[in-house]
Automatic annotation (TrEMBL):
Gene3D superfamilies: 3.40.1190.20
Entry keyword set: ATP-binding, Kinase, Magnesium, Metal-binding, Nucleotide-binding, Transferase
Organism expressing this protein natively: Ignatzschineria indica
EC numbers: 2.7.1.35
Source organism phylogeny: Bacteria, Pseudomonadati, Pseudomonadota, Gammaproteobacteria, Cardiobacteriales
Matching SUPFAM superfamilies: Ribokinase-like (SSF53613)
Designated gene of the protein: thiD
Family: Belongs to the ThiD family.
InterPro entries reported for this sequence: HMP/HMP-P_kinase_dom (IPR004399), PM/HMP-P_kinase-1 (IPR013749), Ribokinase-like (IPR029056)
Name of the protein this chain belongs to: pyridoxal kinase
Length: 270
C-alpha cells in the first residue's frame, strides 16, 4: 500500500486540515498519516473566531523524523505551516528526500478572510516551499500573495499570477475559484504547467458552505499523484470529486458548512 503524508494543522471542527486529508487518503485506499503543525480552534461564543496554536518546533521535528525517516513516504501534501520557523524546518526536511516524490503545496495563509496568519508567512512559503511542489494549489488570495500582486480580479490576472508562481520553481499551478471572477460566474479552477493552460469548468453553486474545500481539493490532488496520475489528470480528477461533494453541501452549524464527503468519494469510485 502506498504511503502518503500530510504535514498540516488540526481543524477542531473536523472539516479541514488533517481531518479532511486523512479522510480523503483513506477513501483513495492509501496509507495516510500526518505530522501535526498547529491546532486551530473556533469559538462558538465569539462569532466562530479562530485561534491558531502552533506546535513546538522540536515536536514537529520529531514527527518529521518519525514519518519520513522512520516510515517513508510515496507522496506528501503540505497544508497549514503557521510560522516562518516551521516553514523553514519543513523545507530543510524536504531537501533530504531522495527520489522524485510527488509533493502538493497547499499554501494556507489564512483561516478565513484575507489577512495572512503572520506578516512573513507568504514570503517564507514563496521562497522556501513552492519550488518543491509538483502542484501548488492556492486560492485567489494566496495566488496573489505568491505572485507578489495586490489582488487578482480577472481571469487574465489569474493567468499572469500562475505564470509568476511557476517562475518560483514548481511544476504546475492550480488556482482555485477563478471562475468566480468571470461573467457569468462558474466554479472554474485554473490549471497551468508552463505548457498547457486549462480552465477546469463547473457550474457555480451559490453557497457559503465551503469550509475545508481547499484542503480537500489539495488532498485529492496529492492522492491522485500518489496513485500515478499525471499532474493534469490528478488536478482534473480532484476537481470532479469536489464538484460532486459541493452539490450536496451541508451546514455544520450556524457559522459554517462543508461538502458532502460521501458524494465526493463516489466520484473517485466511478
Amino acid at each position: 500500500m502506498k504511503k502518503i503524508l500530510t504535514i498540516a494543522g488540526s481543524d477542531s471542527s473536523g472539516g479541514a486540515g488533517i481531518q479532511a486529508d486523512l479522510r480523503t487518503f483513506a477513501k483513495h485506499n492509501l496509507y495516510g498519516f500526518c505530522v501535526l503543525t498547529v491546532i486551530v480552534t473556533m469559538d462558538p461564543k465569539a462569532n466562530w473566531s479562530h485561534g491558531v496554536f502552533p506546535i513546538e518546533i522540536k515536536t514537529i521535528e520529531a514527527q518529521l523524523n518519525t514519518a519520513i525517516d522512520g516510515v517513508g513516504v510515496d507522496a506528501i501534501k503540505l497544508g497549514m505551516l503557521p510560522t516562518p520557523e516551521i516553514i523553514s524546518l519543513v523545507s530543510q526536511k524536504l531537501q533530504t528526500l531522495k527520489g522524485n516524490i510527488p509533493i502538493v503545496v497547499d499554501p494556507v495563509m489564512v483561516c478565513k478572510g484575507d489577512a495572512p496568519l503572520f506578516p512573513e508567512h507568504a514570503k517564507a512559503i514563496r521562497e522556501e516551499l513552492v519550488s518543491f511542489a509538483t502542484v501548488v494549489t492556492p486560492n485567489l488570495f494566496e495566488a496573489a500573495q505568491l505572485a507578489g500582486v495586490s489582488k487578482i480580479t480577472t481571469y487574465e490576472e489569474a493567468l499572469i499570477a500562475a505564470k509568476k508562481i511557476m517562475e518560483l520553481g514548481c511544476k504546475a499551478v492550480a488556482i482555485t475559484n477563478v471562475g468566480s471572477l468571470m461573467e457569468p460566474k462558474t466554479s472554474g479552477d485554473l490549471y497551468y504547467d508552463g505548457e498547457e493552460t486549462l480552465l477546469i469548468e463547473g457550474a457555480f453553486i451559490d453557497t457559503h458552505h465551503t469550509h475545508g474545500l481547499g484542503c480537500t481539493f489539495a488532498a485529492h490532488v496529492a492522492a491522485n499523484l500518489c496513485k500515478g496520475y499525471s499532474k493534469r489528470e490528478a488536478t482534473v480528477l480532484a476537481k470532479e470529486a469536489i464538484r460532486a461533494g459541493i452539490k450536496r453541501h451541508f451546514a455544520l452549524n450556524s457559522y459554517v458548512g462543508t461538502l458532502n464527503f460521501e458524494e465526493s468519494f463516489k466520484a473517485i469510485e466511478e
